[in-house]
Amino acid sequence: MxxxxxxxxxxxxxxxxxxxxxxxxxxxxxxMEPEVLQAMxxxxxxxxxxxxxxxxxxxxxxxxxGAEAGIVTSGAAAGLTLAxxxxxxxxxxxxxxxxxxxxxxxxxxxxxxxxxNSYDHAIRLAGARIVDIGHNDRGTGAGIRGLEPWEITxxxxxxxxxxxxxxxxxxxxxxxxxxxxxxxxxxPVIVDAAAQLPPRGNxxxxxxxxxxxxxFSGGKAIGGPQASGILVxxxxxxxxxxxxxxxxxxxxxxxxxxxxxxxxxLSGVPHHGxxxxxxxxxxxxxxxxxxxxxxFVRDEVASAQALxxxxxxxxxxxETQPGITTRLVTGTELAPIPLLEIDAGAGAAALVERLLRxxxxxxxxxxxxxxxxxxxxPQTLRCEDDSVLMRCLIESCRSDA
Length: 401
Ligand SMILES: *Cc1c(COP(=O)(O)O)cnc(C)c1O
Description:
globular; 15 helices; binds pyridoxal-5'-phosphate; Aspartate Aminotransferase, domain 2; alpha/beta; Aspartate Aminotransferase, domain 1; 2 domains; three-stranded antiparallel β-sheet
């Protein structure tokens, strides 16, 4: 346990929680390794040129992802806004200055109806209007057909600036066809892959498939600072995104932009852009880069095995409780994190409540709770918390009476 961390929460009177629900943002995302913390501490103690730091980070991000370039953002959601802003404004300084007001410029972003989600707000924030395409037969169970190329072609107009594709294990097989159709019209595809890690192969997968821009969350599996993410992809679009995020309180005559910025393409020096409110600090950039390099070389098979062994021990302890059965869901290639499902039947919702009211409060995955199942996700569960979790689970099961 890191004593300093406990102390700050204690002194603020904020309860430490056992997080067996995964890298949820509202519970603080992932936990950082000491090496990542150390990188942030070092970064905090010196002045640097932020454009130079982002340019250096881009080299690391490009090497790890296979993309032409990449920047550290203040999260995947911020990355979506910046990606959209890049597609709206490109190198047009007047458009950068106008966003989120997109009157008089093409502003439509296509999305598959079944992929719409809460993070769409980040796309609209840049000033884009989302145009839904396709139908919802699979979502409603009314039919078997998914997205078809003609549905994209029909929706593309002179107002279209990009298509956003939300990558999941269920949608990813549709990406090649989307890329083919959208690229045939000379337009970029933005992939939201915020939570599609591990497997680490996904860092390169969407870029290798031809995506123009991809966002990943830094505070989820990568294990970077909670308020970080990466936006990777085409050099020109990344440069535009960076420019719209950087602080632009500069002297136009002495301004030295990042090497990612095509100075010749700009008709002037932009003001603060739409992304100025999403600034990342030197600490986040340093921490993210460190975490990303560590994530990239981690032995994922060994990590999954270690997590599985811990879940098995928790399962063995729980199986002694009457009325409780467990099921280990081993990871797959596309989703390598193992999970433990606890079948608590009709008492599942009440069990969740008791766990949350306990000391310490325990959070479990609630996605299947209506089917009577609680999920233990070990990603953010510290080893030393396993025994506490077992005690809390057993006590909460017993107080069922
Ligand atoms: C978590 C998530 C985001 C937002 O990521 P942040 O890094 O928290 O901003 C965006 N899209 C999807 C699909 C996500 O799961």
